[in-house]
Write a structure and sequence with these properties.
By secondary structure, this protein is α+β, with helices and mostly antiparallel strands. 52% of the residues lie in helices and 10% in strands. The radius of gyration is 30 Å and the shape is elongated.
Length: 201
């Protein structure tokens, strides 16, 4: 159903057709499926799946389909399943419209307003948080992770470009590792020379 249509009065003709589906034989169900979908039904569909599919399509035409947020949520679940068929599907955290997300980036505070059907940032409306994260950082980020809505994220959620806010920390760690490596090599060389001197005497 479309947003706000949950209280819409049921259409008697739709309800009557749904009642007829319950007792319709499979041959007629296949004919009705072709009529509403303009395609042959999948061969694996038995009577139950045919009835459910037809019933959904009839109601969708009469009352409207899924809301855009619900469709997005379903699309995300499908993508997650396609990426990891045997993995656990974790749906993103739901945020109430009117909530404000705040993210500090390079000394600047960025505020995003959660809308019923998207997100408002800098006077514009966006369909998802990732678009906003890219706009802020200049690199590809997973939006929910960027705004702190995911405590743990797979490696694929890492930004493609470097997160320059952590660059100094990484450079310091790398320099420290190189320094330690040089010290170990120098100590090994001194020990080798010293040992070699004693054997040469």
């Amino acid at each position: 159903m479309q947003p706000g249509s949950s209280n819409k009065t049921a259409d008697p003709s739709v309800e009557a057709e749904l009642d007829r589906l319950a007792v319709m034989p499979i041959a007629q169900l296949r004919v009705r499926y072709r009529e509403v979908f303009r395609a042959d039904p999948p061969k694996a569909f038995g009577p139950d799946l045919l009835r459910r599919s037809i019933a959904y399509r009839i109601q969708e035409k009469a009352y409207g389909g899924l809301s855009r947020p619900a469709q997005r949520l379903l699309d995300q679940a499908i993508k997650a399943f396609a990426a990891k068929p045997n993995g656990k599907i974790v749906l993103p955290r739901r945020i109430k419209p009117g909530s404000v997300l705040v993210r500090e980036w390079k000394g600047k505070s960025h505020r995003v307003m959660v809308l019923a059907d998207g997100f408002a940032y800098d006077g514009k409306t966006f369909g998802n948080l990732s678009e906003i994260a890219v706009l802020i950082t200049g690199t590809r980020w997973n939006g929910p992770r960027f705004f702190g809505l995911r405590s743990k994220a797979p490696e694929s959620d890492e930004p493609v470009g470097p997160d320059r806010s952590d660059g100094a920390k990484r450079n310091a760690e790398a320099a420290s590792a190189r320094s330690s490596h040089r010290k170990r090599n120098a100590a090994s060389t001194v020990k080798s020379i010293s040992t070699g001197g004693r054997h040469g005497r």
